[in-house]
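can u do me a favor
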């Protein structure tokens, strides 16, 4: 359940909020609101912190640095998600348990589905969660949030989630809901592929819909509106992982990743250092594939033919052909529709060559096996997309209860 203090914070911000000085970002992040206006939540306490280098305040100072250097409380335990506290690890890897070499504070890595240990939670009074996400359930930070909430609920430790913008805004959500049998680190909760929620809202959704019963306080942003995409916030983009160094990568992550990262014989551009900007394959003809994608008239995205050889990854040194994507309008762009259209198009153009090499991974990424069956039948993208609309309508009603912003 959401603590009364959380509700009071929300009301105070929505009823007015602080004036933003000229030249400052339009949005004050949760970390700013916490330290400027609600230090009582931490004062005199032993604090645990889940964070990484993606978490900075509105002018670019790291949450880690700000909290560790604040003398009004003591940070006594650190936790890091996939890639590590300072993003020094590749996909699927994270920090080992030990002591952070820079701060000298105890550190637990939460990659590979690990929740915080009961031993570490026994040594803190409150846990703060501050990580920048990109708005997709397949990005493992969303799963880390849920696992942390479950662990602190069992340990009776309060949790404070410092809110941050969803880069694509708060209005759009796409895709099938994850079926229970296919839940994993890339699909932990019953949400669609993109959910249109901030992490504060997602935390409230987890608590309410999954019955986690964590003692949750959300410190919301000031100045953020659901219609805002990242470009409207005035905030500087900071890499959220090794594969999302730029805002362009964040916007295109779902479009390329749901096609190339789903156990298919398709590349998502990561090995070519154009992270999630490309969809290519060894069997594709760049001009033919590009013409077909353009003919689909997908909103908010432009396609150009591309030929390349990845320098690393499963297709290292292979001659690949495909499309280079450029987002022309973030608000109208539909990343999952783009990924689905790419899969349907490749299956139609190259039925004997396009393959799903790992159907179990495909089901985990997409959330069910029905999408794979529809692809094999040759269903049109519009028909496949229509199949999950009833679930999205139910999700729209569910999420409404947890929204913090207009």
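np, heres the sequence
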């Amino acid at each position: 359940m959401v603590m009364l203090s959380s509700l009071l914070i929300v009301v105070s911000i929505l009823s007015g909020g602080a004036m933003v000085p000229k030249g400052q970002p339009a949005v004050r992040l949760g970390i700013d609101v916490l330290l400027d206006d609600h230090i009582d939540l931490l004062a005199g306490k032993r604090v645990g912190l889940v964070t990484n280098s993606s978490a900075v305040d509105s002018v670019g100072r790291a949450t880690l640095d700000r909290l560790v250097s604040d003398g009004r409380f003591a940070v006594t335990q650190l936790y890091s998600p996939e890639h590590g506290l300072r993003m020094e690890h590749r996909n699927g890897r994270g920090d080992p348990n030990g002591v952070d070499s820079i701060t000298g504070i105890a550190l637990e890595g939460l990659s590979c589905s690990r929740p915080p240990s009961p031993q570490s939670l026994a040594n803190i009074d409150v846990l703060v969660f501050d990580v920048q996400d990109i708005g997709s359930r397949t990005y493992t930070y969303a799963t880390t949030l849920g696992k942390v909430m479950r662990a602190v609920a069992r340990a009776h430790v309060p949790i404070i989630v410092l809110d941050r913008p969803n880069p694509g805004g708060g209005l759009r959500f796409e895709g099938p809901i994850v079926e229970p049998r296919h839940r994993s680190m890339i699909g932990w909760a019953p949400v669609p592929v993109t959910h249109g929620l901030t992490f504060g809202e997602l935390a409230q959704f987890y608590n309410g819909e999954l019955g986690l019963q964590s003692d949750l306080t959300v410190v919301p942003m000031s100045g953020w509106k659901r219609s805002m995409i990242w470009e409207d916030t005035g905030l500087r983009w900071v890499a959220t992982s090794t594969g999302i160094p730029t805002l362009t990568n964040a916007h295109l992550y779902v479009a390329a990743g749901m096609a190339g990262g789903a156990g298919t014989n398709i590349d998502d551009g990561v090995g070519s250092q154009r992270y999630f900007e490309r969809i290519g394959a060894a069997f594709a003809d760049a001009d033919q594939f590009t013409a077909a994608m353009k003919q689909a008239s997908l909103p908010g995205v432009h396609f150009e033919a591309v030929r390349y050889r990845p320098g690393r990854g499963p297709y290292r040194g292979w001659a690949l052909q495909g499309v280079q994507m450029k987002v022309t309008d973030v608000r109208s762009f539909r990343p999952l529709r783009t990924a689905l259209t790419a899969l349907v198009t490749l299956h139609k153009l190259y039925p004997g060559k396009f393959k799903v090499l790992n159907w179990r991974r495909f089901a985990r990424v997409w959330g069910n096996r029905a999408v794979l069956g529809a692809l094999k039948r040759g269903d049109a993208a519009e028909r496949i997309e229509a199949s999950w609309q009833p679930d999205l309508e139910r999700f729209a009603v569910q999420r409404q209860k947890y929204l913090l912003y207009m």
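The two ends are 21 Å apart (CA to CA). hope that helps!!
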